[in-house]
């Protein structure tokens, strides 16, 4: 109950787990309306693969590898993850966290200014200058090569 009250104060950090399917696991004390006022970190603190350890010479390794491959190809792990996440949290909570995770707080549009495109125009002008120089050289070479 105390952690739930603290989640509205913005004075502490709370852990979330970014799952492999793109969903987020949220602690039970973080409520839907508190998430709108909290901001997730932009980078992961820790990330690791889920690994299985088998004996090197086990005869079950090829069939186990095939099972894992089929589960991943069929998307069963993503379906399971979606069901579990939606059972424990609502979809609105997931949308809020996903929005803040991928967009952050700086989502205002910026008007296009000269400094945004000056490099591209500089390259374009340089290309035009080289093309014009090649054209002049061709004209001079053509003038002196052909008898008139």
Automatic annotation (TrEMBL):
Its main location: membrane. The gene is LOC108733206. It is a multi-pass membrane protein. InterPro entries: Insect_Ionotropic_Sensory_Rcpt. Keywords: Cell membrane, Glycoprotein, Membrane, Receptor, Transmembrane, Transmembrane helix. The chain crosses the membrane at residues 119-137. This is Uncharacterized protein LOC108733206. It is found in: Cell membrane.
């Amino acid at each position: 109950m105390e952690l739930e009250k603290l989640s509205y104060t913005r004075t502490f950090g709370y852990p979330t787990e970014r799952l492999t399917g793109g969903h987020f696991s949220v602690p039970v004390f973080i409520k839907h309306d508190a998430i709108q006022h909290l901001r997730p970190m932009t980078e992961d603190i820790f990330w690791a693969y889920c690994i299985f350890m088998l004996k090197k010479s086990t005869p079950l390794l090829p069939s186990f590898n095939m099972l894992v491959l089929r589960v991943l190809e069929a998307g069963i792990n993503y379906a399971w993850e979606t069901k579990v996440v939606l059972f424990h949290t609502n979809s609105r909570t997931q949308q809020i966290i996903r929005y803040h995770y991928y967009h952050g707080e700086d989502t205002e549009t910026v008007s296009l200014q000269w400094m945004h495109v000056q490099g591209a125009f500089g390259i374009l002008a340089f290309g035009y200058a080289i093309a014009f120089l090649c054209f002049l050289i061709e004209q001079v070479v053509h003038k002196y090569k052909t008898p008139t």
